[in-house]
Design goal:
- Keywords: Membrane, Transmembrane, Transmembrane helix.
- It is a single chain.
- The chain is 84% helix and 0% strand.
- The protein has three helices and no strands.
- α1 runs antiparallel to α2 and α2 packs antiparallel against α3.
Length: 117
């Protein structure tokens, strides 16, 4: 029974990881497509660049959330050792740092700051 649950958890982790990768890829393609269309309409390059970066950042943030979820599922349900927990902690810290820095890059403020400031 434990092997069955481990197999299901590993499969779920792979599916969620694929969703994360797909999310990043789809947002990147959409952002590029949107930028090209706006370039053809001769809109402001600064506005196009800013929106392209924001769309890419949003896609990366959302994709990172899925990737973190898949890492947690895999580590906890499939390969639970002190070494894998340590690696998971480092990966989550790095991805969390990336999420925070992307948030600051896109909006100019930390995620916990009031949006009206």
């Amino acid at each position: 029974m434990d092997d069955f649950l481990a197999d299901v958890a590993a499969w779920c982790a792979v599916v969620i990881e694929a969703i994360g990768i797909g999310t990043i890829a789809l947002f990147a393609l959409y952002a590029l497509f949107n930028a090209v269309l706006r370039l053809l309409k001769r809109e402001s390059l600064d506005l196009i660049f800013q929106e392209l970066r924001q769309l890419l950042g949003r896609g990366i943030l959302l994709g990172l959330e899925f990737l973190i979820a898949s890492d947690i599922i895999y580590t906890v349900a499939v390969e639970l050792t002190f070494e894998t927990i340590g690696v998971l902690a480092i990966v989550v810290l790095i991805r969390t740092f990336l999420s925070f820095t992307l948030e600051v890059e896109m909006y100019g403020k930390w995620p916990w700051q009031d949006k009206r400031e």
